[in-house]
């Protein structure tokens, strides 16, 4: 099994995600994976977040290595999903995989066709880096 990359979360993101999980009564497929990610993360104050880390509301460019397909998505809370196709919920497998990763990190995740490897190529926007510490 591939070793999971180191992840970093802002304390604000952690608090908000934990609050959502407490309110979420219906099970969802990635709940245990998300909780495991939260448990293993290093937590930083929002003002101390490195600019190359995927945080909530970050816009991320990544590649699925098996296919070479690149995507750009914004990692959002479930209520911000609007069907536009350019957002991914932190409750979705891709969102769980991206949360807390740094540029250059790779992570295996399940897909309908088996395991796929995601590589973070760039962070086009990160709220903390833009000075939005309490968004």
Automatic annotation (TrEMBL):
UniProt-listed Pfam families: GreA_GreB, Rnk_N
Domain Regulator of nucleoside diphosphate kinase N-terminal: start-end pairs = 5-43
Q: Does the keyword NAD apply?
A: no
The UniProt entry, under InterPro entries, shows: GreA/GreB_C_sf, Rnk_N, Tscrpt_elong_fac_GreA/B_C, Tscrpt_elong_fac_GreA/B_fam
Instruction: Name the keywords, alphabetized.
Output: Kinase, Transferase
User: Is-annotated flag, keyword Oxidoreductase?
Assistant: no
**Domain Transcription elongation factor GreA/GreB C-terminal, chain residue ranges per copy:** 50-123
Tell me the SUPFAM superfamilies matching this sequence. Answer: FKBP-like
Q: Which GO terms describe its biological process?
A: DNA-templated transcription elongation; regulation of DNA-templated transcription elongation
GO MF terms listed in the record are: DNA binding; kinase activity; RNA polymerase binding
What domain of life?
Bacteria
Question: What is the recorded name of this protein?
Answer: Regulator of nucleoside diphosphate kinase
Tell me what organism the protein belongs to: Diaphorobacter nitroreducens
